[in-house]
What does this fold into?
Amino acid sequence: MNSSKKLRYHVILFAEECVACGGIGEHLEAALYRSGWKGTYIHRAVENLRLPHATVPQIKEATGLDAAHLAQTIRETVKGETVS
It folds into this structure.
């Protein structure tokens, strides 16, 4: 990632539709911090490996990976609230 471009962003939200541990999101976070980026990195991924039988939109909502949940995460971060 170009240094000047990455430094422009104070918050990066990375959402991936797979398990969090060992995924690309963790690798991106490590690379950003190794390169000297000082922002807030939010990584959203599937935490519960037992997903319900449902449609894709329903599963995204259940896992917090739908647009509404991701937008709320950004709003809370910008307001300075704790992001879980």
Q: What stands out?
A: The longest strand covers residues 11-19. Helices lie at 3-7, 24-34, 56-63, 67-79.
